[in-house]
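Justification of computing resources. Each target in the renewal requires a structure prediction run like the one illustrated here; the chain below, 652 residues long, is used simply to show the kind of job we budget for.
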Amino acid sequence: MIFSEFVNESKSLVLSAMDALNYPKPKDLEWAEPPNKEYGDLSFRIGFQLSKELRKKPFDVATEIATKIDEMQISKKYVSSVEAHISGFLNFKMNQANFFSDVLLSASKDKTYGKPTIGDGKRVLVEHTSANPSGALHIGHLRNIAIGDSLARIFSFASYDTSVLNYIDDSGLQVANVILGMTELGFPENGPAGVKYDHYTHDPVYVTTVRRVDETPSLKAKQDLILKQIEDRDPSIKDLVERVTDKILKEQLQTCWRFGAYYDLLVYESDIIHTDLWDDLFQELKKRGIAKYETEGKLAGCWIVTVKGESEGEDKVLVRSNGTATYVAKDTPFAALKMGLIPDKFYYGKYLTQPNGKELWRTRSSANEETCSRAPVQWNPEMALTPIDDRQARLQRIIQYILSELANQPMEIRYIHVGYAIVSLSPKTAESLGIETSKDLSGKHAITMKARRGLVVTVDEAIDAVKVKAKVETLKRNPESSESNDKWADNVAEKIAIAALRFSLLKQDLDKIIVFDLEESLKLIGETGPYLLYTYARASSILSKISSEAEPSYCNAASGRLLENQSEMELLLVISKFDIALSKSLKMIAPKWTAHYSYELCEAFNKFYETSRVVQEPDPQIREARILLVRATLNVLKKSLDLLGIEALDKI
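Resulting structure tokens:
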């Protein structure tokens, strides 16, 4: 936060000098931190930006601006000097005494330190998870949940009015397969005791049914019939479908809550169908000429939408020749509703209270004494974020095109597909979790999961597997044996497991395939979730040794001036850039910048820890300054971890 003020002060000086010199102003003043601190703490490329237009050498431009800044004698708080470099850069050095004192005191006591206000109450909808209620969530879903939940946290922290949605596809083929398994293949509706229900419905029910349909053509007709009965809410099957999907959904939510993800509204696909949102939208698409009837070729009899520039093929079917709607037709009404382009025809009822105390609402297609017509979220937001893996990129582009045509304006900057690559498993992890044989793993760098074959690692299994290893390490580091200590170790191991999984899924570029490795994610050194928790616990242990009489007063304005060691200044510099990392995550719509910042902060703190005494420092003033530095680190680190969905622990 303070570093941004240093940047803004430097920019203001440059702009004032340019006004005085009657120089043209570029669209953006490009700045960077010099790789060599001898050149300064901040550099502007202004000499290069203006040299061509002014017909002067970059060095001459930079020199004239630096000279004018000195002549103007403007009051400066964080800038100590400015000079032109022969290369044409304009270099600023900071007033370290003022800068570091403000960072230290602000970050150690201000609970809102680093909080951006750029959201200013603007509305953001984040739709994530959106898994079929047919079986257990697997580790592929986990990247979606981690990205969506972290983005919701970051946008909310940045003062956006953020709501989280979960789309429930309770009328699709996956649900039909589960019901087919129960009605035709003899699987009981209630699974075996002791087995989580969503695990049971995935394997054996779903996996076995898919295999049998592939092997037995006569089952395909029954599958089609059940799918139509589900969409029509046929009374002969309606109650069974609702009971089964509701039990599965509640088990999925238990998994999400365990992972730290919560929601505001569940939107059911069956409610979209039975409020006729698609029928109404389809008529509008036909009326506006967005949907066109194909009379020739292989798509004759289909209603299509033509999207210019689609390299995969311009025509996309909305409604097949047999009258059935495609996936894009099912997804578009909800997207249009989100963006306020069609009327809201839902009713809403409370579904349940989540473990964090937040009420979870759901859509209904008809009214009863427990429903209302007012949505618990506000449609037509300034921005709607939809994390979906890159395999759905074409579908999302088509939806964006349809929305743009309906709105008569581009919707790409408001309806945003947050694409990401899939998650695979390392061969070692796949083998340890029992989803592949050694023969299958031969020569493979990564194992792609296959839900239809049952070759997946569920979220529950992944958390449990990491937790087992984390608990062993936790007990090893805390050997006191007691029942209460075992409960404590179990809770700590759970939090470490969540941190390991979340951080491994968030630190990568979104377009990079993640090869998840169980052993790597648990390391206490390197860029891992447990390393972040370990650093927080290390800092907490320092403060736990300080008596109440030794607590700093926060009123010593000179405290920051006393921190002159290289590691102290580097740590303060990292702390000063918290808001810059958040701004990157917001601008790029990617949590990785916050993840990288958290790791950088931990690295800087551990270097400080290794080189500086805190509690045992003999000089009382320096000791107080270092206590404040530890407190500032904890304050900022706890916030950055929370934005990643990682719960900070005082002891691990």
